[in-house]
């Protein structure tokens, strides 16, 4: 239950009862009283987090918004080099840099005029990119917390932001059906990739940095040459997706892209040929997330059908089906371990053993759907963000 606001407390003043207000006296047996230990257990059960970040509020400049969404969190990124450093962004038009275990330290990322939809650290950890529905990407110097530059170009909101695996090149997909690439050091536009006919919902560089893959609400996957801007392949039509793409991931050897879509289908595409080489059919609702295991030939998909499915890519068959209480919104593998986590519409974060398919831990604490997950650089912590306006940190060191 929410605490009364400051104004309510002032209005109430002190409250007195006289004998005429007492309707009925009830004798309470000591056995009826809750045990203090029971209360502590209930509290512990309700929130398993070791750190809560509440810097995102439903106000701007101290003035509350009417819209509830203004405090919701949409994106989280853990630094690849500093195990304590986290970036979060959401509906209050802000991002924050903060540190696990240092509740009194935070740097506010200001300047966006709409929700912060995507955050990403450069692979050397030096820079942070913040993408917003205002169509802008801001580049931040992580060590100082100062803005380094603003990247402009798209006429629609930013759906996602990615960094080149070895340099300070930024790639972003927009609601206006375009994909843009910039040099972040110089805040200079390098290329625009045009061809999609609807919002570009997902995309990335291949790990070797030589190719770009993008997925769109137009139900196509496009494969691009980053240097020339040439559209090398368009993947569409039977046997590919019939509805908009929602997510993609690329194999570590840069040969395969796995894509998920609203039509509940998952397809594996050979990037060099642009051909669909396999289809993974088992879900019955929109695919929300996909991730390839870093150390085994397995992949994981999460869907609004309340299932996480672990796939053996060698046989294109399900290894395990992991049931949830509600739709699965996001997933992340824990480095090279066999464990992965899912975020769910029910507000729970669950840890799964991909070998057995068992849920080995359920983290409680959030009260609304989980939107994004990220693992700290040392793999000791998992950070989740939710529509409940909080980021929570859970210990995962035991799942190495």
TrEMBL record:
Signal peptide: none annotated. Residues 10-20 have a biased composition (Acidic residues). The keyword Cytoplasm applies. It is found in: Cytoplasm. SUPFAM superfamilies: WD40 repeat-like (SSF50978). Residues 1-21 are annotated as: Disordered. It comes from Punica granatum. WD repeats lie at residues 109-150, 151-192, 193-234, 280-321, 321-362, 363-400. CDD domains: WD40. The keyword Repeat applies. It comes from the Eukaryota. Keywords: Cytoplasm, Repeat, WD repeat. This is Uncharacterized protein. PROSITE patterns: WD_REPEATS_1 (PS00678), WD_REPEATS_2 (PS50082), WD_REPEATS_REGION (PS50294). GO terms for cellular component: cytoplasm.
């Amino acid at each position: 239950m929410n605490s009364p606001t400051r104004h309510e407390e002032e209005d109430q003043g002190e409250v007195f009862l006289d004998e005429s207000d007492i309707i009925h006296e009830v004798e309470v047996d000591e056995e009826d009283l809750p045990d203090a230990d029971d209360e502590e257990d209930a509290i512990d059960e309700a929130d398993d987090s070791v750190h809560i970040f509440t810097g995102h509020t439903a106000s701007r400049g101290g003035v509350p918004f009417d819209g509830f969404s203004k405090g919701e969190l949409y994106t989280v990124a853990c630094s690849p080099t500093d195990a304590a450093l986290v970036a979060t962004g959401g509906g209050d038009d802000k991002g924050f840099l903060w540190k696990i275990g240092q509740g009194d330290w935070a740097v506010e990322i200001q300047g966006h005029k709409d929700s912060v939809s995507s955050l990403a650290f450069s692979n050397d950890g030096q820079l942070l990119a913040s993408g917003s529905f205002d169509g802008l990407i801001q580049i931040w110097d992580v060590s100082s917390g100062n803005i380094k530059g603003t990247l402009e170009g798209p006429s629609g909101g930013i759906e996602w932001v990615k960094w080149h695996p070895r340099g300070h090149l930024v790639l972003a997909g927009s609601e206006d059906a375009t994909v843009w690439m910039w040099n972040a050091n110089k805040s200079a536009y390098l290329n625009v990739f045009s061809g999609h006919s609807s919002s570009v919902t997902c995309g990335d560089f291949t790990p070797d940095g030589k190719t770009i893959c993008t997925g769109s609400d137009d139900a196509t996957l496009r494969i691009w040459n980053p240097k020339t801007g040439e559209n090398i392949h368009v993947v569409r039509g039977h046997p590919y997706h019939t509805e908009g793409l929602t997510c993609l991931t690329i194999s570590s050897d840069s040969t395969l892209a796995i894509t998920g879509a609203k039509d509940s289908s998952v397809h594996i595409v050979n990037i060099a040929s642009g051909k669909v080489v396999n289809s993974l059919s088992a879900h019955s609702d929109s695919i929300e997330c996909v991730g390839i295991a870093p150390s085994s030939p397995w992949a994981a998909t999460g869907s609004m059908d309340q299932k996480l499915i672990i796939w053996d890519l060698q046989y294109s068959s399900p290894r395990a089906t992991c049931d949830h209480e509600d739709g699965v919104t996001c997933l992340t593998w824990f480095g090279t371990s066999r464990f992965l986590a899912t975020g769910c519409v029910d507000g729970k974060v669950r840890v799964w053993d991909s070998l057995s398919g068992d849920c080995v831990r359920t983290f409680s604490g959030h009260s609304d759907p989980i939107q994004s997950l990220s693992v700290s650089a040392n793999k000791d912590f998992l950070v989740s963000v939710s529509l409940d306006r909080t980021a929570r940190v859970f210990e995962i060191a035991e799942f190495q």
